[in-house]
Write a structure and sequence with these properties.
- The chain is α/β, with parallel strands linked by helices and about 425 residues long.
- The chain has a domain of about 260 residues: Rossmann fold, CATH 3.40.50.
- The chain has 14 helices and 14 strands.
- A seven-stranded parallel beta sheet has the order 3-2-1-4-5-6-12, with helices on both faces. Strands 9-8-14 form a three-stranded mixed beta sheet.
- It is globular.
- The relative contact order is 0.13.
- The chain binds nicotinamide-adenine-dinucleotide (NAD) and 2-acetamido-2-deoxy-beta-D-glucopyranose (NAG) (2 copies).
- The site of nicotinamide-adenine-dinucleotide has 27 residues, from helix 5, helix 8 and strand 5.
- Homodimer.
- One of its GO terms (molecular function) is UDP-glucuronate 4-epimerase activity.
- It comes from Gossypium trilobum.
- It is found in: Golgi apparatus, Golgi stack membrane.
């Protein structure tokens, strides 16, 4: 649910404060050249500080949080390699060895844990960026660590790191879930979408293409590629050429890029178009999550309405259903066909919708939360802003049903009950309030 997909998390602005205190004290020693020198050194130092801290923030492109995440991470060395190997070690017969990108994310954590549970080897990769509260990502990391999944801290656009990982482990599969999610954040940080969803994805595919053997890749696309298309339900063959947000445009570009790597290099690629995924350990930038937080704080809840009082609705999909779809996609993926960067034959290329097939109005979402939280909600009806949110999503999943055996089984009421249970215990157990 897109508009609702984002918390505008304004990066802290640096403020330089002048101190009159320094000035009055310095006056007493004005004659002393030493004091003069000190004074001007301080002025000079402050100017340098102002230059470095102020000037980049006037250019939104330079505010890229990836300036921070592009710092060189601490990776490498024998102890690190041992952890990587042990985490990726297959423990069941015919198990896979899977690299999960975005493993500290919402979907990545659930998929990693499910793979590990059934005996596959799993190595996570995540840059722990601060698009939303990184302490939630750290808590998910702790959870995975307890089940033996190691998350390497690094960026998917770092080719040296990825090459190193493939040198240490011959991954059979890549589950690619790292991305810049959310719709409204593009107004604050457009570069992050290009960095992760385009440059990072290309870098990952480059390394996969050169790996020997090449892994099969399953990656997360999004229902947002259907954009302003209003023929419902959305089927895989429907047009996807009218993106309504930069997020959707980069997801759409990702699909084109995947097609290209499949065609040229023989990489086996499967794209999954998720429809508004929710559940325990979910994303704080999504409506069901921050509605819960705000309802508990007795804040009024905005309910968006399209033109002519049109209902805004989403095909909410419970995380366990999504995880089953992801595992089925991995299980049915064929091997890539290239070697040494050269295609040897045609390779598998698939795209599937993974939704719940029953759109629910946002007002119903709020009523369910109201009942579960036992708090009377004050509603504010507002017009849906035209900044990336579509009015309606509805998945046709018959292709995934036929080819993956995908069948969603959790309705919104049941799924939200599980979410609220997790939310209240997670944020009461000594952890500070979300966001
Ligand atoms: N949750 C949904 O409703 C939904 C809907 C449609 C599509 N998707 C897609 O599913 C995937 C997983 O989404 P999610 O809800 O778990 O989001 P999430 O933000 O919780 O997880 C993404 C993870 O990727 C990491 N990451 C981002 N950029 C990275 C980079 N350059 N290098 C390394 N790590 C990076 C982040 O730190 C984060 O932990 C994404 O591709 C998203 O676009 C999600
Ligand atoms: C991704 O990495 C490449 C190669 O290191 C670098 O040239 C490029 O600037 C990076 N792209 C982004 C958007 O960060
Ligand atoms: C759903 O998608 C399938 C193709 O996978 C198509 O044959 C079918 O007509 C679609 N159903 C509807 C109701 O659009």
């Amino acid at each position: 649910m897109s508009h609702l997909d984002d918390i505008p998390s304004t990066p802290g602005k640096f403020k330089m404060e002048k101190s009159p205190f320094i000035h009055s004290r310095m006056r007493w020693h004005w004659q002393s050249s030493l004091a003069k020198l000190t004074f001007w050194s301080i002025v000079f130092f402050c100017l340098i500080l102002i230059f470095f801290f102020r000037s980049p923030s006037s250019n939104p492109l330079l505010q890229d949080p990836y300036r921070r995440s592009l710092r060189t991470y601490n990776w490498g060395g024998p102890a690190w390699e041992k952890r990587v190997r042990s985490s990726a070690r297959v423990r069941s017969r015919n198990g896979f060895s899977v690299l999960v990108t975005g493993a500290a994310g919402f979907v990545g954590t659930h998929v990693s844990s499910a793979l590990k549970k059934r005996g596959d080897g799993v190595l996570g990769l995540d840059n722990f960026n601060d698009y939303y509260d990184p302490s939630l990502k750290r808590a998910r990391q702790e959870l995975l660590e307890r089940s033996g999944v190691f998350i390497v801290e690094g960026d998917i656009n770092d080719s040296a790191l990825l090459m190193k990982l493939f040198e240490v482990v011959a991954f059979t599969h890549v589950m690619h879930l790292a991305a810049q999610a959310g719709v409204r954040y593009a107004m604050e940080n457009p570069g992050s979408y290009v960095h992760s969803n385009i440059a990072g994805f290309v870098n990952l595919l480059e390394v996969c293409k050169s790996a020997n053997p090449q892994p099969a890749i399953v990656w997360a696309s999004s229902s947002s590629v259907y954009g302003l298309n209003n023929k419902v339900p959305f089927s895989e063959k429907d047009r996807t050429d009218q993106p309504a947000s930069l997020y959707a445009a980069t997801k759409k570009a990702g699909e084109e890029i995947a097609h290209t790597y499949n065609h040229i290099y023989g990489l086996s690629l499967t794209g999954l178009r998720f429809f508004t995924v929710y559940g325990p350990w979910g994303r704080p930038d999504m409506a069901y999550f921050f509605f819960t937080r705000d309802i508990l704080k007795r804040k009024p809840i905005p309910i968006f309405e399209a033109a002519n009082h049109g209902t805004v609705a989403r095909d909410f999909t419970y995380i366990d259903d999504i995880v089953k779809g992801c595992l089925a996609a991995l299980d049915t993926a064929e091997k890539s066909t290239g070697t040494g960067g050269k295609k040897k034959g045609p390779a598998q290329l698939r795209v599937y919708n993974l939704g719940n097939t029953s759109p629910v109005p946002v007002s119903t979402l709020v009523s369910i939360l109201e009942r579960l939280l036992k708090v009377k909600v004050k509603r504010n009806i507002m017009k849906l802003p035209r900044n990336g949110d579509v009015q309606f999503t509805h998945a046709n999943v018959s292709l995934a049903q036929r080819e993956l055996g995908y069948k969603p089984t959790t309705d919104l009421q049941t799924g939200l009950k599980k979410f609220v249970k997790w939310y209240t215990s997670f944020y009461s157990g000594g952890k500070k309030a979300a966001g």
